[in-house]
Amino acid sequence: MAAPCVTIVSADTLLAAALSTLLCEKGVFDVSAAKSFEDVTAGNPDRPSAVVYDLSGAGPLDPGPIAAFTSGGRKAPVIVLTTSESFDVVPALLDAGVRGIVGRDADADEFVTAVTEVAGGRIFVSRGMMDLLVAHVARCPVDRAAAHLQDAESLAPRERDIVRLLSTGMTNREIAAALHVSEGTVKTHLGRVMVKWSVRDRLQVVLRAIGRLHVTPADPGGGAEGSEAPR
C-alpha cells in the first residue's frame, strides 16, 4: 500500500512541526500542515490519506468544523488529538465523523499507529480514551439481564473469548497469542460477531459487549498497545 498523505490541522505551528517530524521519522509519510480545515488541499485519490486535527488547545469541544469537513464529500478521514479526560467527547467526535481519537496520554508509537490505521480505512481509539469509554459504560445503571442472555447465547464459545479479550484493550495480535490461534482466525471470528450483532466495527463490538458479557474493564496501567478498532 502506498504511504499515506497526512495533513496536520493545528493553530499551533510548533506542535504541527513536531508531529510532522515525528511522522516522517517513523515512516515514509507525505506530511503537510494547515491552520484550518478550509486550508486542507485535496489529496491524491489514488493514495490513502488522513487529517490530524489538533483539539488540544481549542477550549470547549465544538464538533461543527469536523462534521462540516467529514460530510462535505472529502475523502480524508479525521483523527483528533484531544487533552479531554471526559467520556462525553468520544460519542460527540464519533457522531461528527471522526475515525480516530488519540488522548493526551498516547505515546509516539500509538499516534503513528492511529494515523496508519485510520489512513488504511479503519477506526482507532487510543488506550486512554478507551479506558474512559469502558469506565463510563460500566457505571451506567441499565437493565442488562435480557440483553446479556441474548448476546451471550448468540456467540460461539471462541467468539465470546475473543470479545472478552478485545474489550479489555487487546489487539488482534495479543488476542491470537493469548488463545494460541492465528491473527487470521481472530479476524474471522470478529467478523462473525459483527454479522451476528449487526455492528460495523470493533469499537461497536466493544460498546455492545461491555456490561453484557461481564467484561472487566482494562487496567489503565496495562502495557498493551492502544485499543484500535478495527484492525
UniProtKB/TrEMBL annotation:
Domain HTH luxR-type intervals: 148-213
UniProtKB keywords: DNA-binding
Gene Ontology MF terms: DNA binding
Protein's GO biological process: regulation of DNA-templated transcription
UniProt cross-references to Pfam families, sorted A to Z: GerE
CDD domains membership: LuxR_C_like
This protein's name: Transcriptional regulatory protein DegU
Source organism of the structure: Microbacterium azadirachtae
Taxonomic path: Bacteria, Bacillati, Actinomycetota, Actinomycetes, Micrococcales
Name of the gene encoding the protein in the UniProt record: degU_3
